[in-house]
Amino acid sequence: MLTREESRKLLATYIDNENLRHHCEMVASAMEAYAQNLGLSESEIEDWWTAGLLHDLDWEKFPDEHPNHALENIFPEFGLPEPVTGAIRSHAPERTGKKPHSVIERYLFACDEISGFMHAVSLMRPNGFEDMQPKSVTKKMKDKRFAENVSREDIYEGANLINTELPEHIRFLISVFQK
């Protein structure tokens, strides 16, 4: 298993785009916070953080093969545990054919799209995440032109997968991203 430092070096090797690296860091923070909130062990918390950080590792350099390129050609060299690779595989079910089933898989799916969307909302606000409310996010979701590449359907499905109402999921993530 990679250390956090090694994971970040791997991320920097494959992702040049600062915004994409920032997205990966946000998803890692969200995953870590949810793992802690669920009372998971330290090793499980590390798995969740790693899955969040590395979930889009091949997106920039191999977009047409994402996430299969990383799963088949990069991760095997580093011995990532199955919960991590399974979560990464199932965060893009339309590309891999694997829907999220395990707890880590469902949470990665739930945190991915919404994190990117919330970041876009924060950029439109003078105080970013500081005074953001769930309603600010859900209101922007109704504007189909805003962050139009973000799947609203996946955002709703993600909240359902973790058995959480969307505003509560957003509220939790706001608290994570304010730190």
Task: Explain what this protein looks like in three dimensions.
The protein is mostly helical. The chain is built from ten helices and no strands. The protein has a single domain (4-177), classed as Orthogonal Bundle (Hypothetical protein af1432). The chain is globular. The two termini are 27 Å apart.
Largest sheet: none
Rg on CA atoms, Å: 15 Å
**Series of secondary-structure elements, N-terminal to C-terminal:** HHHHHHHHHH
Mean pLDDT: 97
Can you tell me the residue ranges where pLDDT is under 50 for at least 5 consecutive residues? none
The CATH C-level name is Mainly Alpha
Query: In the residues, how many domains can be counted?
Result: 1
Number of contiguous helices: 10
The helix/strand class is mainly alpha
Coarse morphology: globular
For the terminal residues, how far apart are their CA atoms? 27 Å
CATH architecture: Orthogonal Bundle
Per DSSP E runs of 2 or more residues, the count of β-strands stands at 0
Q: How much helicity do the residues have?
A: 55-70%
